[in-house]
Amino acid sequence: MCGIVAYIGHRQAYPVIVKGLKRLEYRGYDSAGVALLNHGVKLYKKKGKVAALEETTLGKDLDGHIGIGHTRWATHGEPSDRNAHPHLSANGKLAMIHNGIIENYALLKQELIKKGYRFHSDTDTEVLLNFIEDIQENNGSTLEEALRIALKRVVGAYVIVLIDKDNPDTLIAARKGSPLVIGIGKGEHFLASDASPIVEYTKEVVYVNDYEIAIIKPDELILKNLGNERQTPFIQKLDLELAAIEKGGYDHFMLKEIFEQPSTIYDCLRGRLDVIQGTITMSGIRNNMDKIKNANRILIVACGTSWHAGLIAEYVIEELCRIPVEVEYASEFRYRNPIIHKGDMIIAISQSGETADTLVALENAKEQGAVILGVVNVVGSSIARLSHAGAYTHAGPEIGVASTKAFTAQLTVLTMVALMIAKERNTITRDRYLHLLNELNEVPEKVKKALEAAEHIQKLALKYKDVSDALYLGRGYNFPVALEGALKLKEISYIHAEGYPAAEMKHGPIALVDESLPVVFVATRDTYHEKIISNIQEIKARKGKVIAVITEGDEIITAMADDVLPVPEADELIAPIISTIPLQLLSYYIGVAKGYDVDKPRNLAKSVTVE
Ligand code: G6P
């Protein structure tokens, strides 16, 4: 949530920052701004996307080798020019960008107002900045000292980066709870919320830890903790290619990411699944197997699409491993004083690895003695680092705000984890185990086949694009797929959609059914097939329009439904990975047909680093 970029070195800072901000727009796009240091602070900011900022800066003085930039997802204060970052301190010497929330800002603001401070924005950021300035001026402290004192009083989450007119060769940054990566170049440093703005300049990076302050000059990076003790920067090699974060000929990142799924799922299986030997190897799981297989209970904690992956994992793990599973919204879990026993295992699912609610829920559970197993996409992210054990989803950077390829990779990894545990616990027969290994191995090909329907789905999208509501129904493993399908439609096309267990629709949603309501059934052939056919009949009897995701060759449902979306046959436990594909495409094409910016849907952000 909010993207930050900063640069110090021999290049012009502005182009580096603006290019970086464009890569981080998935984190928020309510406003954008840049501050450059060159004989004073030059500040440019604008409501809207980074492109609007670029228009504002046309023909302006953009000279400077040190600068900070920000793309905002509004929390305190509406999206507007004046609430855009960077903010300037009252004396005009300091400029600051911030990602996160300062929870006690109101109290600090009151103190500052009493001292005569006036504020030009509604943001918590401007409060923190002036709080730092005030300490600096009253105590005669250096900026670094003032920052340390200020951060000890701050409650909340932040990454902040400051430039100081009086120290034109230094950037100062600090982190708690929000991500910060520093790229190390030759005589230059790059700072960003993730590695995507950095990768084309250097592959050497340092992930700043919570409660660390970074003092950065072109040739020097000093890390300290809040107690002013030097910390050794741990330099890591980035495993990220520039091509992975570009559109590669597709109209949108979302479409590119949907079409990447055969290869991302393959990458997820590669080196792990061996059908000939009949093995699954995931060292993060294997090395902790004693704790994992003896878990009394598994709690899955996640948000959004990752929570839907958790629901499917619940069905899979209970079925294969016979361990009770509960799936929790991280935001609820963290605040409701959950009961966690020593033998409990938490599975954290997160694409970004930075979702604030998930992160804090895990910190709490870890303190109470739970074993944390992370299923995370972004390597080196906070959740990955906090977990005791884990498996990366290896889906590569996901830039479209609506999650697609990360979801199917999560399902693939979670199924492999369940199979490994089931084998250790002897809760699966050899035949079933080998059958599911084969089924997993065939998923990339089947997903490829499902994607061949793109053109047909594009036409269907035109037929349904003007509906105001939609109902998504599924049973068993396909119930969470229905939830995910409905979420995708809401996110991308702003059409109200609800997901429901197909049988449960009789207890309420059926009242909505009339000739104008499309009902999307996820009805691939499985244990519940006959039951879902009855549910389709119930909708048809009330004149609802039925769109059904079916197993290829299902003539019964084809004859009943208004439109069908066939996918290749798969074991019911694996089917969600495939039946999700047409629903992703349907939402995408409806969103495009309505003329919306599908990569950056209104009000959403990809990485929700505020609670
Ligand atoms: C945001 C994104 C969703 C994502 C959710 C959880 O709402 O827009 O696509 O599913 O956060 O994010 P995570 O990174 O933890 O999976």
Question: How would you summarize what this structure contains?
Answer:
The protein is an alpha/beta fold and 611 residues long.
The multimeric state of the shown protein is single chain
Number of strands: 27
CATH architecture of the largest domain: 4-Layer Sandwich
Note the gap between the termini: 10 Å
Task: Quickly count the domains.
Answer: 3
Indicate the overall shape. globular
Strand order in the largest sheet: 3-2-4-1-10-9-11-15
CATH class of the largest domain: Alpha Beta
Structural class: alpha/beta
Helix content: 25-40%
**What name is given to the CATH topology of the largest domain?**
Glutamine Phosphoribosylpyrophosphate, subunit 1, domain 1
The largest sheet, given as strand count, sense and whether it forms a barrel, is:
8 strands, antiparallel
Provide mean pLDDT, rounded.
94
Explain this structure.
This protein folds into 3 domains: 3-243, Glutamine Phosphoribosylpyrophosphate, subunit 1, domain 1 (4-Layer Sandwich), CATH 3.60.20; 250-441, 3-Layer(aba) Sandwich (Rossmann fold), CATH 3.40.50.10490; 451-611, 3-Layer(aba) Sandwich (Rossmann fold), CATH 3.40.50. The protein has 20 helices and 27 strands. The longest helix is centred in the C-terminal third of the chain and has 22 residues, at 430-451. The chain starts with a strand and ends in an 18-residue tail after the last helix. The strands form 5 sheets. Strands 3-2-4-1-10-9-11-15 form an 8-stranded antiparallel beta sheet, covered by helices on one side. Helix 7 (261-269) packs antiparallel against helix 15. The protein is of the alpha/beta class and 611 residues long. The protein binds 6-O-phosphono-alpha-D-glucopyranose. 6-O-phosphono-alpha-D-glucopyranose binds next to helix 10.
